[in-house]
Amino acid sequence: MKIAIAQVNPTLGDIKGNTLKIISSIKSADDKGNDIIIFPEMAITGYPPKDLVLDDGFIIKNIQALDEIKKQCRNITAVVGFIDKNDGLHNSAAVISGKEIILKQNKTHLPNYDVFDEKRYFKPAEDSEVIEVKGKKIGIAICEDTWNDGPCELLKEKGAEIILTLTASPYFKGKEKIREEEVLSKRCKKNKIPMIYCNMVGGQDDLIFDGHSYYFNSKGEKIFEAPSFEEGLFYVDTNSEEKTNYEINDTEQVYKALILGIRDYFRKNNFEKAIVGLSGGIDSALTVVLAAEALGKDKVIGMTMPSKYSSKGSVDDSLLLAKNLGISIKTIPIKETFSSYVSALSDEFKGRKEDVAEENVQARIRGNFLMALSNKFGYIVLSTGNKSEIAVGYCTLYGDMSGGLAVLSDIPKTMVYDLTKYYNKMKGKDIIPLSIIKKEPSAELRPDQKDSDSLPEYEILDQILDLYIEKGYGKDAIISEGFDKIIVEKVIRMVKANEYKRYQAALGLKVTSKAFGSGRRMPITNRWTG
Amino acid sequence: MKIAIAQVNPTLGDIKGNTLKIISSIKSADDKGNDIIIFPEMAITGYPPKDLVLDDGFIIKNIQALDEIKKQCRNITAVVGFIDKNDGLHNSAAVISGKEIILKQNKTHLPNYDVFDEKRYFKPAEDSEVIEVKGKKIGIAICEDTWNDGPCELLKEKGAEIILTLTASPYFKGKEKIREEEVLSKRCKKNKIPMIYCNMVGGQDDLIFDGHSYYFNSKGEKIFEAPSFEEGLFYVDTNSEEKTNYEINDTEQVYKALILGIRDYFRKNNFEKAIVGLSGGIDSALTVVLAAEALGKDKVIGMTMPSKYSSKGSVDDSLLLAKNLGISIKTIPIKETFSSYVSALSDEFKGRKEDVAEENVQARIRGNFLMALSNKFGYIVLSTGNKSEIAVGYCTLYGDMSGGLAVLSDIPKTMVYDLTKYYNKMKGKDIIPLSIIKKEPSAELRPDQKDSDSLPEYEILDQILDLYIEKGYGKDAIISEGFDKIIVEKVIRMVKANEYKRYQAALGLKVTSKAFGSGRRMPITNRWTG
């Protein structure tokens, strides 16, 4: 049996555009003589549609689109993800054959954890049905239904010979190993049934769908895998056991995820150019590099905004980086403007020592300049803070946190270094100057400031944050891993104390199993100190 | 039977403090010879605990607290809301009698819409049990279980003679009518059973619990209602049918909600003073008035930041308002600082007309000054934008949107006028000067600017927004209510185009059935135009 995997990149809410994309894939696969084509979960609407689902017109339009698609299925059978309305709403897959819908298979297990809210909108399936296509018994599963017992076992029981899985499974570092080993291989082996797994690709706000679709045989062996972060139509012949090989390491995956996340955020919102404040530090350097790779060097503007605390090296390093990248760079010194604030505040601040207030004024002046260019020319400001800083609040609200997209907000500082080294190595030259990589991290908001004045070493901080945020360990559990009690307590206190900043943070690209944002819902008013 | 309703105001995560409050209420009610005392849903933890629920230590601590409470129940039976861990987590109520837990009643219907995410954390109850207290058969229901069929009917079937309901039901305008008529009266009448309804009181981030607890008899008549927005211990004798009378209109309710919301946000976060930028307009006037009433006039600072576009009236009106209120007021003109930006940007902006970029620079300078005082002195900035403006994006990100709490973000402009008039009337004098109330709305960011240059009249705008956001009407349905097609389309387009601003907005106090924030989850990247 010849099956086409349509690893497509829909745009949320663009039902017309997504439908055209689906129809053109169907034609193409049909022309090539495929028996079946399978699309991702909710391919017609895009995923996750969030509260658009509560808009009746949106649901009606997506069902009308299915009718359009139906008419285009000549010889091929198409399996298309959509939202069905039938005794409530369902996350569903339509199987179309002979220009008719011959099965609607609803999703049984509705994820309602982390970034997922499917129980907010949908009712679960009550059954799973097997259907015959060209003499073969086919079962359909939707995403979470392959991660949990029930639907696949039921399909096997009912005689299914292959299971086709539609998914919209967002990427995080290490997830492909879980999908391959814990989900697909185990379930295929358990039920002695082969599975095709078609995953969405593309960026949607904070989420990045990685594609990386699969064919696993009934022994649980991986026969085919599609590339990650690339849209495409891929073909599987279930009679062939010839294995493909697709290798990619974690750092490269994260790099590709960020590129796609930036690119799709711009493309799908009709944004054209990005502007990045360059401090001379490694975070803004990596951000501008990613932007240039994602959007093209002529679509990215760097801006240095030196203050009296900026080292000469910081500006020179930024100029060199811009030159290496081939992007244009602007300079607006903030010294005069800062003086004007200091002077305006002199009565109010009389007799007070300089402190974080003056530091933040500078960060906010920079934010204001970046936003002024954004408002005047339509540039989107990319904010540059990494996950470690954002976790402990080492960032200024309305200052360096200003921006439409927080590119590195889920990248711990130690991973920032890994990505930087990966990038220079891939390019075969030090596009990001070594002086930037080797510089001791500093906000340069007061004389001789260093991050290590206020924070634990990043090597330690990132390990604690990984246990606390990603792995969900409590204080005692972290300490029992061998970390210093005082440091652990300080870090946890800082994370808790900065929920209010993150509440107002820009959208950030999720690349770990637990990002700040919609998947981590913390109260601001909270006296729990455990 | 004598039943005490403990309409308490817990602090989220302060398990120790909440436990002490519960124990002291139990003692007090016991001393007064009550048979039963009932607390709100999740009184031990506070509500909603969000992802704190995923922290094992938090759950353990709340169960230990129940053990402490148990020991304090001498003669009285206590019904206490907590989180149980038993084959998964449950939103549960413990019935304590003779220092033992004699029943744990879990919640059946888990709300998972608007601001509620209970299916993210909890498993539903499988049964509802009746228990005998002093010869009377008692049933327990938790919040949503009285809004939906099932649990109460089951309790009646099993012989319950009264149902005690624990709730954490956040306020919105008009909700008490729904609770009384659609929920309590109907369900009591249907099952011919009396109900006690004990609701939480207090502010928790965006949510304001209004208390307003009830006793309804088996004929569905309201016998007793506790005041709204006030903590207290109230007593009901189920043998008495003497009716209390508690009357309060919608505007007064909203006013009290906002006061409690501000007060608790400050108190529970250990914040002391608030600062409000006063533009001379009605929104900032109402905001500073509410702050002064909530926190005390010595805890609130007003600040005027006139620009070259500010009318003389604007500053004078703000000074008069501050004088009427008895709060201190500061003035920092932004003219010089704005000039410094204009000069720094002159190369970049050469040949370009002045536009929204320059307007926003001014708003952001004001944000920066407010935040500078916030950072230096620990004041919390209250932002002043109303719901109508925030809906259509007539506000500046990092400018007037800066702040820790957006007091009016769920108050439509027309309701701002109602509240202002209500306040002056209540005070018996024009604390808010008539010149502020009568002034035509203007952002004063360019010469002779008026809101009506860019927006429909607020009377029209607010009606369209009410239909679109609160009532969830689609475009066509709104037009068929008699509104102009072009205006409706423009308004909807503006609402959609400004999701990115609201994504970074400060926490706002929810007082309508659909506020921006956690109860309205919209994608930013979204091509759905319907």
Model description:
- 2 copies of one chain form a homodimer.
- Chain A has 530 residues and is α/β, with parallel strands linked by helices.
- Chain A folds into 2 domains: 2-247, Carbon-nitrogen hydrolase (Nitrilase/N-carbamoyl-D-aminoacid amidohydrolase); 254-452, Rossmann fold (3-Layer(aba) Sandwich), CATH 3.40.50.620.
- Helix content of chain A is 39%, strand content 18%.
- Chain A has helices spanning 15-31, 56-70, 144-147, 151-157, 175-191, 250-268, 282-295, 312-325, 335-345, 356-377, 387-392, 413-427, 434-438, 451-454, 458-470, 475-479, 485-497, 499-503, and strands spanning 2-7, 36-38, 77-85, 89-97, 100-106, 130-133, 136-142, 162-167, 195-199, 201-204, 207-210, 214-216, 222-225, 232-237, 274-277, 300-304, 328-331, 380-383, 405-406.
- A 6-stranded mixed sheet of chain A has the order 5-4-3-2-1-14, covered by helices on one side.
- The radius of gyration of chain A is 25 Å and the shape is elongated.
- The termini of chain A are far apart.
